[in-house]
Each structure stands twice: as structure tokens, then as C-alpha cells.
Structure prediction request, 197 residues.
Amino acid sequence: MLTDQTEQIAADHVLGNERYRLLGARLHELRRMHGLSLKAVADAVNVSPSFLSMVERGQTDLSLSRFTRLTEFYKVLPSELLLELDSNYHQPEISHVTDFQAFDRGAGVEYHVLLQSGAHIVHTKLDPGSSFNEMRAHRGSDLWIVVIGRARLHYGRSSFDLSAGQTARFSATVPHGVSNPFDAITELIAIGTVPYW
Prediction:
């Protein structure tokens, strides 16, 4: 029985050390991403640079108050730093845009809704000479990003030509649509603040 308890204590110690190491690595990465020195962060959260260095190397643990000060300083949720080692992480969901629900928006138009909860995200591909078969209006606002080629945004009675890398942000309550009067395929991503399909 004593051996079982000793083994459990040793296992808990190893697991604890691994958690300290992972937490330290996450804190180190946050500091690096913000371009800050140990001293700058240590001063801001009222700890010594040597103590913060030990925390980042996983050589010591943190009190709740120090941990809270660090999360507030970096503006992150505590849960972002406290992922459990034995959690079942969800792997990234890898899909092709054509795997998502398609809607008929006109001949030569591929229109796939990638996300419908929270933000509404759509991938649209237009063959040369194609266009949406109708202009639509809905609640919220849209952000369109031209990824490939050129597109023409129709917004109310106005039209705007956009090239790859350009964006258009507008109120979606005005009837809008897109066409491709150009000689190459265009692709764009549209992000709406309100789901509408």
C-alpha cells in the first residue's frame, strides 16, 4: 500500500511539473508575442524578473493572485492558459469550400456558406461574365474580401470595382450583389454580422 501511495505522489509530482512547464511556455510565448522584456512584465504584475523567469521555465508555480495579474496584464482568459494535459482536444476540422452548403446565386456562380452561427461567412467564386441573379438586403453589415481576381460590388444604385486584397465594408440593409465582368475568375469571402440563410 505504501508503494502505491508513493507511486501516486511521484506521478502527481511529474504531472504537476508538466503543467508548470506548459503554463510557463504559454506565458513565455505571450510575452514574446507582445515583444516585452521579463523586467517589463515583472514590473507590471509586481513580481521579480527572476521569479517570472522561473515561472516561464516551469520551475515554480504561481499563486492565484499572481496568475490573475498575469492574465489581466495579457488580456487573456484564465481558461486559455489552463488547458488540462488530459483534455480531449478537438482536432482542426479540415474541409474544402465545396463541402459546405451551396446556394443558387446564378449561372457561373459558386456560393458556399462556411459558417452560419454568430458571423455568417460565405465563399463565392464567379466565372468571367457571371453575376448574382438578384441583389439582396438583410439585417446587419457585411465585409467582403476579394481573394483572387477582380469583382464588381453592386450597392444600391452604385457599383464599385474591387481587386484582390481589397475589402468593402457596408450596411447590408441596402440591396447588394456582386458580378464579374472581367476576363478571369474571381473569388471572395463575405462576412456578415447576421446569419441570413
In short: Residues 97-192 form a domain with the Jelly Rolls fold (CATH 2.60.120.10).
